[in-house]
Amino acid sequence: xxxxxxxxxxxxxxxxxxxxxxxxxxxxxxxxxxxxxxxxxxxxxxxxxxxxxxxxxxxxxxxxxxxxxxxxxxxxxxxxxxxxxxxxxxxxxxxxxxxxxxxxxxxxxxxxxxxxxxx
Length: 119
Hints:
With 119 residues, the chain is an alpha+beta fold. The protein is 28% helix and 45% strand. It contains 3 helices and 6 strands, in the order βββαβαββα. Strands 1-2-3-4-6-5 form a 6-stranded mixed β-sheet. A hairpin with a 2-residue loop joins strand 5 and strand 6.
């Protein structure tokens, strides 16, 4: 398995893609936007560009996003993008000494192909 990390600073925020190859063929996506830039649609737009790169150039099978349940704006981004809610992972990540639950979202290459197929 090979891990790669891609990071870009856009509009006062960060977008991250951590990629694993081999049988996993997945990437974990993280994003953060400066509060002053929030609400302008930059994060969904950046996610679409990142997904296009992940699925069409890197040929990955799946992208995953994990969001703390109290982070309403990030949850709205995932819903706006049509990412599949795969449930809550209890005590998923330790943040500042506290194990935090995360709602897990995903999109597969098959999902991506359907969203890109004209009807």
